[in-house]
Amino acid sequence: MKGLLAFAAVALVAAAPSADFKLQGKIEQGGVAYGTAPPGTVGLTLGGEPVPLAPDGRFMLGFDRDAPATLTLAARTDAGTIVTRTLAVAPHAWALQHVNVAKRPPVTNEEFERLRAPEVAQIVAARAVRSDSDGWRQRFAWPAKGRISGVFGSQRIYRGNEPGAYHSGVDIAGGAGAPVTAPADGVVVLAADKPFTLEGNLLMIDHGMGLNSAFLHLSEIDVKQGDHVRKGQLLGRIGSTGRATGPHLHWAMKWRGARIDPMALTGPMTGQDLRKVPVVEN
């Protein structure tokens, strides 16, 4: 009898579904993945940092341009158990690109810092906004059409052979005045009322779950802070305000502090050969 009970217990354990994560996407530097947490999950972390979890158990992950080789995804369930998975983050061979523009505007360092500090404060505050938008669930569309003139993650060398930070987004040379539309649903968290020193006319949208977009160098902004925008809605027009060598849209994305490649959410633009991108615009 005891043997039969022991066998039954083993059979029940073997038949129980394994509590694990379901993940889909590219787990690589600059990439994104989407997943479903184990049943009963009440808390989620990636590398020890909290990850937002939707009521239906869905979540997304963004992997920074310089993400480490491994990260631990952990779920805490309502039963008190911890479910973990070690994610291997694939490295990326980032390009080296030269930019024919000065690293900083022609002002003293003191003047630059005086101008820059309040701008950075506005950007930080905008990125801290957490809306309830479900835009993060959508397939993202390109916000503008045109030649890809700069790719995400490339190490930039400025005029005078001066090294700078890596390129934080993708550049689209669509022509002055060309329309810029929302790549997905979201809420406007920043619509600059005057050009920023580097970004020019800057617009930022929160897509929910800590995912946000920034659109730089616009010639005009057609929405205001607090507006709920829909995928495909007109946001503004391409320009060359701020630090720019010509009219283009710089589209940058972040997920909870991690800089990610917008192309990870859209896929390549039709007809573009990214091997022939010699210079970034900003």
TrEMBL record:
Keyword line: Signal
SUPFAM superfamilies the record matches: Duplicated hybrid motif
InterPro entries: Cell_wall_metabolism_enzyme, Dup_hybrid_motif, M23ase_b-sheet_dom
Signal in keyword set: yes
GO molecular function, one term: metalloendopeptidase activity
Keyword match Transferase: no
Name the record gives this protein: Peptidoglycan DD-metalloendopeptidase family protein
Phylogenetic lineage: Bacteria, Pseudomonadati, Pseudomonadota, Alphaproteobacteria, Sphingomonadales
